[in-house]
Amino acid sequence: MDNVVDVDEEGNQQKLSANSTPYQTQECVLYGSIFVKNVPDLERRLAGLCDPGCEEFYEHEMSFSLRTSSTSDVKTDIKLRRRFRTEHQIQNYWQLKYIGVPEPDQKCPTIVRKEISSLVHSQDMMTYAKSLGLRMDYEYITQGKLWTKGNIKILHSTLTRTLRAGTYDSSSLKSMSDSALVEISISLPESAEYMPAAKSLRDFADQLMPLVNMEKIDYWKKMFSTPAAPARR
Amino acid sequence: MESGSASPSSPEPIVIDEGPEKPPSILAPRKGVDLVLEANDDWKIQEIGFDGVEKYLKPETFTDQVGKLARRVEWMKLVGSSTPYENAKIDQTEELDDEGVPSRKGEKGGTNVELVTPEAGPWSSVAKYLHESLSQLNVLLDDLSVMKNTDYMKALTVLDPITIAEPTPEHIQTMRGTQWIWKRRALQEAVQVLDIAQKQRQQALRNLGLSVDYIAHLQRTKFFEELKEMREIWRVRKTGDYVYGDLSYHIFGWKYDTPNLFDISRRSLSNKFETSDLSIIEVSVPKDLARRSMLVVKIVKDDIESGDLFRDPKSNDYAYSYKEVDAEKVKALHWKDSLKWAQNTLLLRDTFNTLCKDAIKLRNRLSIIRDNVLLIRLFDDYLLRFELQWFPFEAGQIHEEGDIYLNRVLREMIIGFECTKFVRPQFFCSMPITHLPESLDLRGCGGFDARQIADRAVTPRSILDRMLDMAAHRALVNMMTEVAELMCGSSVDPTIQYKWLHCGRNYSKMMFQVVSKDYDLYLSGHRMHHTFFASVSSDGITIETKDGMLIKCDRDSARVLYACQYCVCIYQVSMFAMVCRNQWITPFQTLYSNVYALDDKGNPAPNILLCNQAATRSILFKFHVGRDPEILVRRFVVNEKTAKPEEHPWKKLSYRKLYGATFCKKVDALLSFLRDC
């Protein structure tokens, strides 16, 4: 076997050996929204800017929270996500995601926050969640397309919710608004420098400018100011 | 002093009081004179009636005068024809009837339906003349503008009318002269007009009747059409006034990098409407890419004795000076060619750099890089040589050197690498994108540990790695073909044919078929030894027989040949056994046969021992690889224990001297000889 020396020339090139993929626990995010009727324009622009090919997704996300018994203010949000495809019923695969509080860095043009996600395989996820002590806050269904450019991930999706909890057939689904949510993000390894990545993310977001205005939305302020209603993004 | 205006003045003596203090008395004698006051001018008498009453002509009073003057003023012109007579402030936009009379609001004063021009005022004639002269001026201006726009009309000067209008007798002598002068002047002006006309006609002839503006318009449309054509192949962008394109070949990743841009400008063609071969788009190419290049791959043998350098240091092909590039010459080429060549140069240059970097990383393989040549060890004595060649940036055929198959394979791999997306989104869209294979997404209950993930991860191999494998395979395939040709060409009996069953980049398989002429009927049954295979991989060649015997020959062509010949020997054994099974003509019994037998030197020598039906003779055939078979005949040994060896000596027969042209015929003849004796 030839002795291969790993020489990393450019910082933004993906290292292609498995040994050097660190676990990515940080992400830089920007959010924006666009009217659903303008989504084809956005798609055309993304087709021009991004790497070729896009992927569709149709997923159902539930947000749970773990409240410690002492105070009800401090709560930890855990998000659970499952695939909602109708062709093959892969019902046993779940994604558990924890999103942390964003870093209070004023100079950074994007939201930087800790994000830990893992894939879980479980027959009976709800029982497990309940036994963990997680209570469901809200849920929604998201459907849209995913584009990539290098290691920048661009999602645009429409959100729907179900009128009756538990049933997810098309009759009880109702769309939440006539806007689509646009999210641009980069995942970074833990304790890596996020400024250059954030800057490149901001530069990319500026190219979508007249169609979508991507912003660093201070959702945490809204969240903590009105503890009763969880303002979700 | 008049007393009242209306009453006729009757002379009436007026008593003037002299002093206010004295009381007036009629009796006092009056001093002074009698004054009689009369009007200076009387009213003129219009007529005196027969009764003595005089009718006077009343003079005009002030109001009469005002009335008279008012009637002279043209009110319509002052106020405007649409406004009603009395209320001038009413808005102008009220509706008008068919006759143009404002319907509702003007009812009070009423308007003049027929517009009667009032009598002209004292300045009216001046106004009229002014108006006339202004309208004449308007006409003049219109004429001038018409003349300016048409090409065939020109304003001529008019000769001073005064001089023409007054031909005094003194001028009669000079009249002719002046006439001639005038005529000449007129003619000159006419000549000027005709000159212009002629020039225009000539230009029109050249431009097929088209004006300069139209040609410019045509050029502009042509520019945009060609730009559209260019956009089908190239990425073009406009920033401000600056149009440029991108020469980079990457699909994923960032585009429009500054060193790889080319400028687009419009070539200023002359105003002639000629269809020239030059395209209207001029393209400027970065100076370091302004050359044609080719990446040549070749397998060379490391010849120690040759003494030649693998790259001639004196050759100037590589020595490329950036300053020598003539930007104008580059612009003169058609953009289709120049952009294609420049991008190719960029691609090959980047590939060569990647190959060199990969070569440095492979520590266990020796490689040499010098300027534009990379030599890397392939196997044994062979080296793989990559050379990046430069050619001048001109049209013309470039002769392709090196191994064409390897050139093509390299190109295909480069393009394939560019088109491969190494990162992919995970099963759930909100998970980070990854380059790990998709099978690791849904891991199931067990989950994998780091070692297992590392095992399953697909480590993409570099282009150089793949090229080395493919080049090694190619070299071995060539060698195999040579061996096969040699063997098949030299072997008349039996006839050996070869064909490729499968030809791939890293693995190929060849099939050999051994046929004996005229003995095809023996093939019908048992065909096992009539075919054998050679499989060629990147590492070596393996000869396989149908019964599963593998002979590893690595990369040695002599061994391959030996192995093939060995397989032919095996074939001969089985043919022999087949022939002697013939019940009617040559019935012989096979006593013993060993395909794996070795001779006294240890080389493989399959043998077969037979005896005839009468059990009188036994024949032993030993097939040596690459040589004629050894034939030994003796009397059949009935009882091995009591037989004396000297009574049963092996008699050696010469294969060559046997009757028969082919092996099978010889065997046939021999067997038929020994059948009954």
TrEMBL record, chain A:
It is found in: Nucleus. This is Mediator of RNA polymerase II transcription subunit 18. It comes from the Eukaryota. Belongs to the Mediator complex subunit 18 family. Its main location: nucleus. It comes from Caenorhabditis briggsae. One of its GO terms (molecular function) is transcription coregulator activity. Keywords: Activator, Nucleus, Transcription, Transcription regulation. One of its GO terms (biological process) is regulation of transcription by RNA polymerase II. PANTHER family: MEDIATOR OF RNA POLYMERASE II TRANSCRIPTION SUBUNIT 18, MEDIATOR OF RNA POLYMERASE II TRANSCRIPTION, SUBUNIT 18.
UniProtKB/TrEMBL annotation, chain B:
Residues 1-27, 93-114 are annotated as: Disordered. Keywords: Nucleus, Transcription, Transcription regulation. The keyword Ribosomal protein does not apply. One of its GO terms (cellular component) is mediator complex. GO terms for biological process: regulation of transcription by RNA polymerase II. It comes from the Eukaryota. InterPro entries: Mediator_Med17 (IPR019313). Residues 1-13 have a biased composition (Low complexity). It is found in: Nucleus. One of its GO terms (molecular function) is transcription coregulator activity. Transmembrane segments: none annotated. The keyword Transit peptide does not apply. PANTHER family: MEDIATOR OF RNA POLYMERASE II TRANSCRIPTION SUBUNIT 17. Belongs to the Mediator complex subunit 17 family. This is Protein CBR-MDT-17. It comes from Caenorhabditis briggsae.
